[in-house]
Design brief:
Strand order of the largest sheet: 1-2-3-4
Number of strands: 7
Largest sheet: 4 strands, antiparallel
CATH topology of the largest domain: Aminopeptidase
Distance between the termini: 40 Å
Shape: globular
Length: about 280
């Protein structure tokens, strides 16, 4: 059995028992792996721990109930696996930046984590492969692009799928959307504005996060598209518990902290890669 199949077995079990008490020990017992092996395998493949995946999935389903049902918050708390409404409300606000009551009143559902699913084993990519395969996206790439967005939704709080699709089509028409694909699988995607230097959306398939794909996209911007201006991107603020590691990824690429922002009613921070950082990619 390959690693991808093993991970999907674990995810299937989690999804089938999402309303039950789930932790590393009882999941490992159910799927037949040691908890230490399971922890390493899951985090290495998906990019977050089983604990974080389960918590984010439970809170996403709870958020859905808050918006689309009339269930009392206490009942939703229990369904999400919390022993009290107070405990549920505390973690919900940490992740969603709103209390459950505020979230329900706003009637604007967005997921922290959708079910993680993929059907293909990863293929080895060389840096030369990556550089050659980044190209302008077309309308025919939208299904593969949106499949990737589904996987990396954790990096984009408050993302509205309908509005995002409209934006994506506009950027494709303006030749500001770039994609890296392996057959019909989108591995990396980027929306950018060459006039302002802003990266307006940037995502890499979790199974390929160790292949230097983020560096390759930044390299393309710096060397080919916008060599003479700073590059900016917005991400989670320092200490945001909803961040699964995106801020660190950008900081590791050489981005530095810039202004604090509020985007779509969510606190974020702009990060900046200055021209002086160009040598980092040479």
């Amino acid at each position: 059995m390959n690693k991808i199949h093993n991970i999907m077995t674990v995810i299937d079990y989690i999804e089938e028992n999402l309303s039950d008490k789930l932790n590393l020990y009882n999941i490992s017992q159910a799927v037949g792996y040691s908890k230490y092996h399971l922890h390493r395998m899951f985090a290495d493949t998906i990019g977050i721990s089983i604990h974080d995946y389960v918590q984010r999935r439970k809170l996403t389903e709870a958020a859905k109930l808050l918006v689309f049902s009339q269930k009392p918050i206490l009942e939703i708390s229990l369904v999400a696996g919390y022993e009290s409404q107070q405990a549920f409300s505390k973690i919900f606000k940490q992740m969603y930046k709103q209390t459950p009551n505020e979230y329900r009143n706003n009637q604007n559902f967005y997921p922290l984590q959708l079910r993680f699913q993929f059907n293909k084993e990863i293929k080895h990519l060389t840096s030369q492969d990556i550089q050659k395969k980044i190209h302008l996206a077309s309308l025919s790439d939208i299904p593969a692009w949106m499949n990737l967005v589904h996987l990396i939704i954790d990096g984009f709080p408050n993302l509205d799928k309908t509005k995002y699709m409209q934006t994506l089509e506009k950027y494709i028409d303006q030749k500001r959307a770039f994609i890296l694909k392996e057959e019909d699988l989108a591995i990396g995607v980027m929306l950018m504005n060459e006039e302002t230097g802003s990266i307006d959306f940037f995502g890499v398939h979790p199974l390929y996060h160790k292949y230097g794909i983020m560096e390759a996209f930044i390299n393309k911007l710096r060397n080919e598209l916008i060599p003479d201006i700073d590059i900016t991107i917005t991400t989670f603020r320092l200490g945001d518990k909803a961040d699964t590691g995106y801020r660190k990824l950008y900081k590791d690429l050489g981005f530095i902290e810039d202004e604090l922002l509020i985007e779509f009613n969510y606190p974020t921070q702009k990060l900046r890669l200055t021209k002086q950082e160009e040598s980092y990619y040479e």
